[in-house]
């Protein structure tokens, strides 16, 4: 009886998603070296997952390693020297303190651990509306903060308004007064590079805002560098390093992950020694899980060798230069073919940092969303999805794998095909992507124009 009711409820819910074309499925099995399609979907920005140099370096390192398999349990039960040594190395690499550096099994675990434990009763968490789901889950999982408030993505005016409203608050048990006199804390959560838009948080301006509005020093910035690590800043240390904010007292925590540009597994948080001790006592994703295997730690360490020896820097320069070329070429072709933004829009405006020439490439991101409009044609049904159609066109005609991203992953009306460029892409492959997108845009523009003529005829 219970099983039958459970099955019906589950099937009905999944069927509802299927009708709205938002049902998630695992994609077909694939390998990074598969020749059947050209991958513009994965987060392998530096193409390190297919790098012969890294591959051979890892195998050589493993052949000299005494311990490879397993880890022995939670790090509170066993603390393998492999893990401890990587923490020491990362503290030096990221210009941080050893006692304030802590490994996690994933960026998800790290964010859940921080936000579910560190904010205290009476504190406030302010977060960008596009912050990663792991931060939301951390806030919902045991977080004792009194208020959780969002602001518009990368919008300093919206953020300022939120801060001023909180400081002026006189109704909620003296929250505004406590924030002004420093007896309550405020945590500002952002991503340095947003995974769906490829846009950048204005970190310097945010730090200045915190300094100006919270002179008691009780407001902190927490920066998720998951999509910046390996790509930006000296040796790929991220946008915090790029903006010369390493060690700034307003940045309480900085998260770098290994599973994207570094082609490894795991994450590290750089924070204060006190916060590390606190999370070691209260962060359930750290306490109640088996630590990463020695193999995973060794692989991550080999990836950091690529950052330290300059390999990654050259790859980052290549992929960011490719991003600049792709965006420019596609925009010019869309204008040339008179394909307006009502059909397709390339990317989202980046924050203008107005910095010297050294920043030129760093205005670009390997993540480029192709934002599709909702159905515009009389003949397009409600179930028609331009993002799915564009993705299918690229795969069928050009063997290009670029997946559609729709609600609930992004907000309603923000459907897109998310392009992820890799250092290993050839000029011919990127040029083919441009041609495929333009070809689809021309076809859709014709359908929309024919429908408009049909509509006027009927009138």
TrEMBL record:
Keywords on record: Pyridoxal phosphate, Transferase
InterPro entries the record matches: Aminotransferase_I/II_large, AON_synthase_class-II, PyrdxlP-dep_Trfase, PyrdxlP-dep_Trfase_major, PyrdxlP-dep_Trfase_small
Keyword Nucleotidyltransferase: no
GO biological-process terms attached to the record: biotin biosynthetic process
Signal peptide limits: none
Family matches, as Gene3D superfamilies: Aspartate Aminotransferase, domain 1 (3.90.1150.10), Type I PLP-dependent aspartate aminotransferase-like (Major domain) (3.40.640.10)
Region of interest (Disordered), ranges: 1-34
Domain Aminotransferase class I/classII large intervals: 36-435
Family, similarity comment: Belongs to the class-II pyridoxal-phosphate-dependent aminotransferase family. BioF subfamily.
Keyword Transferase assigned: yes
Source organism of this protein record: Marasmius oreades (fairy-ring Marasmius)
SUPFAM superfamilies assigned: PLP-dependent transferases
MF term (GO), any: pyridoxal phosphate binding
Cofactor: pyridoxal 5'-phosphate
Superkingdom of the source species: Eukaryota
Name the record gives this protein: Aminotransferase class I/classII large domain-containing protein
One Pfam family per UniProt: Aminotran_1_2
């Amino acid at each position: 009886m219970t099983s039958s009711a459970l099955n019906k409820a589950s099937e009905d819910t999944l069927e509802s998603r299927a009708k709205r074309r938002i049902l998630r499925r695992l994609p077909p099995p694939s390998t990074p070296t598969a020749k059947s399609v050209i991958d513009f979907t994965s987060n392998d920005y530096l193409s390190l997952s297919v790098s012969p140099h890294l591959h051979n370096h890892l195998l050589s390192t493993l052949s000299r390693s005494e311990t490879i398999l397993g880890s022995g349990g939670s790090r509170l039960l066993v603390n393998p020297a492999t893990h401890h040594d990587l923490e020491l190395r990362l503290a030096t690499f990221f210009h941080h303190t050893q006692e304030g550096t802590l490994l996690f099994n994933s960026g998800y675990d790290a964010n859940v651990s921080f936000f579910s434990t560190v904010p205290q009763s009476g504190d406030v968490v302010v977060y960008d509306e596009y912050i990663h789901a792991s931060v939301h889950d951390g806030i919902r999982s045991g977080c004792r903060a009194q208020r959780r408030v969002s602001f518009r993505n990368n919008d300093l005016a919206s953020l300022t308004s939120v801060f001023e409203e909180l400081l002026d608050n006189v109704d909620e048990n003296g929250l505004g007064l406590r924030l002004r006199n420093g007896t309550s804390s405020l945590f500002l959560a952002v991503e340095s590079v947003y995974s769906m838009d490829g846009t950048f948080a204005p970190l310097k301006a945010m730090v200045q805002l915190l300094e100006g509005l919270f002179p008691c020093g009780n407001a902190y910035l927490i920066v998720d560098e998951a999509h910046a690590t390996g790509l930006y800043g000296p040796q790929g240390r991220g946008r915090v390093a790029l903006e010369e904010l390493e060690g700034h007292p307003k940045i309480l925590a900085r998260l770098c992950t290994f599973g994207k540009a570094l082609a490894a597994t795991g994450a590290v948080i750089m924070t204060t020694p006190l916060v590390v001790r606190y999370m070691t006592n209260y962060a359930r994703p750290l306490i109640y899980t088996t630590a990463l295997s020695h193999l995973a730690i060794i692989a991550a360490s080999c990836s950091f060798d690529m950052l330290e020896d300059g390999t990654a820097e050259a790859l980052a320069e290549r992929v960011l230069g490719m991003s600049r070329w792709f965006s420019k070429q596609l925009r010019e072709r869309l204008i040339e073919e008179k394909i307006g933004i009502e059909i397709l829009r390339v990317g989202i405006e980046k924050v203008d940092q107005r910095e010297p020439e050294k920043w030129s490439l760093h205005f670009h991101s390997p993540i480029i969303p192709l934002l599709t409009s909702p159905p515009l044609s009389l003949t397009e049904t409600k179930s028609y999805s331009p993002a799915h159609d564009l993705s299918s066109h690229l795969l069928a005609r050009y063997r290009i794998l670029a997946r559609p991203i729709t609600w609930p992953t992004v907000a309603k009306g923000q459907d897109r095909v998310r392009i992820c460029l890799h250092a290993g892409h050839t000029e011919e492959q990127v040029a083919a992507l441009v041609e495929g997108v333009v070809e689809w845009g021309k076809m859709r523009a014709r359908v929309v124009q024919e429908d408009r003529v049909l509509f006027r005829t009927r009138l």
